[in-house]
Fold this protein.
Amino acid sequence: MTGDPGGGSAPFIRLEGIVKRFGAIEALRGVSLAIPPATTLALLGHNGAGKSTLMNILAGTLRPDRGAILIAGEDHAAHWQARRAYGLGIRCVFQELSLCPNLDAVENTRILHREISGRGWRRRTEALLEETLGRIFGGAKLDLRHPVGGLSLAARQMIEIARAFLPIPAPPRLVILDEPTSSLGAQAAEALLRFLPEAHRDGTAVIFISHRLREVLTHCRRVVGMRDGEITAERDAAELTPEGLVELMGSARAAATSDEARAKERDRVRVSLRLPSLPGGPSALIAREAEIVGLAGLDGHGQRASLLRLFAAAQGARMPDVRLDGRVAYVSGDRPREGVFPLWTVGHNLTVGLIRRIQRWGWLSAAQEREIAEDWRGRLQVRAPSIATPILALSGGNQQKVLIARALAAEPDILLLDDPMRGVDIGTKRELFAVLRDEAARGRTILLYTTETEELVHCDRTYVFFEGRLADEIPRAAFNEERLLRASFAHAA
Amino acid sequence: MPPERAEAPHAPLIRLARRPWFYAATGAVLVWLLVVASAEGRGAWATLGTALGFGTFYVITGLGQMLVIAAGPGNIDLSIPSMMTLAGYLGMGLMGGENGRLALGFLLAFGLGLAGGAANLLLIRLFAIPPMIATLAAGLVMQSVTIAYSRGSTAKPPPLLLDAALAHLGPLPLIALGALLLSAVMALLMSRSVFGRTLLALGQNARAAYLAGLRTGPAHAAAYLLSGVFAALAGFWLAAYSGGASLNMAEDFLLMSIAVVVLGGSRVSGGAVSVGGLWGASLLLYLIVTLLNVWTVSAGLRYVLTGLIILLVLGLSGER
């Protein structure tokens, strides 16, 4: 098809009709992709497009529900697993670092490459690792005998990348790099990108996931766009401009549903958080009374950190860049880790957010607690037999209702929502957004961080984050997916 | 539906068996019956009285340990026995056997308890030392102070204190009544106060407790301070109860303060407590020793059997 430096040879690996479901969610709906040998292929897509699922399948950490994984004509799908993928020369550098923090670089290498053994394996591995690090990153000096937990993020990322490219037992056939440049410094990132052609000479193909469009255009040969679990386009990079890349990831959709009767302009500023901005982006995140403000962009680009800063400031931490006017409540979508008290009933889980407000001399009235819990169970229609039901007996969506009720019952002026609809079914989601709009209309300020683009239509304004900075501020009337995507990939309109 | 109706009478019993304190309490009653049977019915009430007397000290120290353990994984107070001995010695020493200085000695014990708890907190919070090591280290310091102080000092309680420690109200020891009152207050505190709710929330999910806006720091601190105070007061009364402080008077309490909490149905990883279970477990452990004494089992075998019984009860109550 295309003239690869690999010499027009057959693809190293071919995926055909890959389907992967997680419960009711279809993460991949029939993805077919051929990965040519010895080239760099870029994979682009917004949150939830299915990139990570696809890469996990390639690496063998997930097995597809349907579809074929063809290598040299043989279908491996039925027995696909990480060890087999490794044996076939597939290496993966994931975004969330996978090194063991208590082990040093040499030991971490031994964990991945079980072939390393025999006397003097430490010395030999260290030498090999040093050589590979030198080839990729030039003269970077790293302490390979120090537990990696004590090294900088960039150093850990470098070790992880070198570990993947290590020629044990032979140079790898395919290396997957998931956002490798975001935690490397500028210099190291540049070095890595310049190294890619050299890796191709050893016959190594690379899949490169990045949100920095310029990197993609200059260093990748083919570009694959994903959206909603499907591949939407596949092009030669040479044919593309940054605008073209944005279009690859999704078609421009009509503007969100027009505003309801929220004409009554209120302008009391409740929240102000100064943030660095990209050229053309706003310099501070502002939220006013009776407003729902969206925080968008790719996951992990500073939205959650900003919400946590605001919450910490409300708890009394000194934050010179934060101004808050009013009481604050926080709801996380990570229920097991950040929300639910697993041993308690629905009632106790609900009232725990306001016990400091309803106490008398440090004591709580059982009758008052029951009244409040019953009231909110009714208002949010929590589907539980009674408030005495253990919280873990409820479905995820109903648990989330309890957590939102917990926050609202505390009567906050400002409500911080951290991806609150994670794993919540559509019906419940609709109910909860109706409640949130209602609460905003009553004067509450709501900050909503979400990874789901559709949820942003509920926001009066949306701030788009990129690498901890503000890339754009989109009013509801001007909201469309294309503008969001441009800003998410730091390509301000 | 007939089948369900047939099961209905059992339901309360099943619910009872699911209570965390059920197994310890049942065990205590069974062992007591065995003791009574072994002695052919003689001294049944006297045995119970003595068990209540000694068990009281397990309960008081257990209450403190329970609060600390409730604060979540990793939290434990290993300075309890050293705290008890220190407060017992210094308290008795300050009073010098004089009734007039009783209040002074009591206040000293109380203050020592607060200071000990504060020392534990300082190591844990300021120096970020794991509680297990921090409290063990603090305990070692307390022990050294006690040993240094104990040379050539009297450790006898004033007569008035001795009388009070041994006094009975009807069949019940006065100190047991005091501990009962304290337990009732603590049970109420855990279920119906902001402090209790905060501590239990912290023990279940520290991150969620912070994000729910709870002030977990003060609750965590209060748990350690109260544990210090309860240990100091238990040591003060134990010194009086046993007629004087001695260096090894509290050596049992390292294990026992933890065992009564766990056997009593509180959750080892924190977040759930049972004050009632503390009483059941304390009586059970004391009565087991009594029973084995009645059967004239040797000391070594007694320890082995005690350990096995603890394991048995833990296994029966399950799911921890």
